[in-house]
Amino acid sequence: MCGIVGYTGNQEAQEIVLDCLKRLEYRGYDSSGLAIISPDGLQLRKSVGEIAILESKLEHVPGTTAIAHTRWATHGKPTTENAHPFVDCHSEFAVVHNGILTNYMPLREELLKKGHVFTSETDSEVLAHLIEDAQGTDLRSKVVSALGRIEGAYAIAVVQKGKNEIVAARYESPLVIGVGHDENFVASDVTALLKYTNEVVYLQDKEVVRITSDSIEVSDMNGQVAQRESKTVSWSLEDAERSGYPHFMLKEIFEQPKAIHESMLGRLEGQEDDSFFKAKFTSIKIIGCGTSYHAGLVGKYLIEELSRIPTTAQISSEYRYSPVTDSKPLVVCISQSGETADTLAAAKEARKRGCKTIAVTNVLGSAITREADHVIYTRAGPEIGVAATKTFVTQLIALYLLGLKLGTMNNSLSSERRRELIAEMRALPRTVQLVLNDAPIIASLAEKHKKANSMFFIGRHMNYPTSLEGALKTKEISYIHGEGYPAGELKHGPLALLSRETPVVAICVRDHTYEKMLGNVREVTARDSPVLAIGTEGDQDLVKYAEDVFLVPKVNPLFSPVPIIVALQLFAYYLAIERGCPVDKPRNIAKTVTVE
Ligand code: AGP
User: Fold this and answer.
1) How many Å separate Cα 405 from the centre of its chain?
2) Residues 554-564: pLDDT tens digits?
């Protein structure tokens, strides 16, 4: 949800901030812009649409300090006027902002009465005018004074005419500082900076930083200096680039065997610190949004199965509406980015209610890691495509590990079963590779269904959430209406929507749900809907029931969501390709949603 970047150093800033900004385009791409401290004053350039459009219109503007922004519209349409950066009435200060200012309307009215002239409909523009009005002898103190007036979430970077410095601050929106040699950076996400540095400082909520080419000064809003150690990020630039794949999403789907391997590395042997799990948890609640919620739903089934601890999954934004009860469940907060506002708010609420919390995230130092009592990193490497793929599968791995841990700690899991399951987990990278090898078959199935307007995805038990996730991937990137449903529920309403034009993807793996799934497939074919059945290798019978069949390797039913979702990710990807959709940057959505 908007990406911001800033550079100050001894090189020309324009090319560097544009390069970094392109790596943040997954956060929003309605419009973009930059401000450069040039010998001719503060130079502003903006454009509607993707960053490439801005770039194509740009002449070289000299200057070694710049800030830039790529926008995902919340307040005001995607127009050039509403694109960031924003300047004050005298073009003295320029501001880029990611977040939402909830009290901007009264502030705007107050500033209008004072004679300020606004050029956009956005909430963010008030910041430039507040800074212009602020008391203070230097940029830092003016920014702090302006931030004192606002409510809401922000990550901002501010520059001032004639000064080679950037002042940045954050509250509930992500911001990292990149540490270079004779140059320093700020960005919404470390992936933007990997070409230049992997040394980063994570700014914390309500901290402000002043950076120049050779200094980084972090302080709180009262000016109290904060000592912040830099951390070295293990991700490489290659991890964050397409490496020859046409889309990040396809690259990330194909990286899944490696990602699964990495996320299990050193963890199956139980060498990790167990102290957090010594507490006795009598119930568990898993929260997340979108794909992370679907991982949580799979987690519900597997954790109950392995540990016998009653477990529920809930959408993060709904958590606050559940009543406070006497029991204090262990709350597992899943967020690949670690910055999703709904999940952060739920994690804070859980702490307020006195619950112990675990964060499952892919991003080192992300906000959720500071909210949680314990963190499980998914180790998937950077995920740039808006559609979550490898982070979903590694979230499942984290949940399998958690289930094994809890089951072992409370003796629900025999050592023999544990050994068997661990052996199966070790085989998962190979299993996923076998599915990937069949990508051409899935591409031809997608070609067949490319004209569909609506599709159903059905499954039972562990694969009910898989059906939800398959449907989400499909709607998100191919713009086909995809609806995931528990297979047994079709007859309670949705059958009315089925016809020859409504394909149904049915997950019919050989487990205890198989016979019932075949019954559901018959219900569907009786309504003329073409069925694509996803089954288990060696199943000769499915072809008798379904128009098309795709088989995945046989695994323990507990792990079947892993190969199946890989097949469904590929199906959604090829549908989107057939329909000419912008796979990595689907319309109207952003990878990280930092507003509630
Ligand atoms: C997944 O393809 C989506 N882009 C979306 O549902 C995503 O999973 C959701 O916004 C949660 O993000 P998070 O995992 O970073 O919290």
Assistant:
1) 26
2) 999 999 999 99
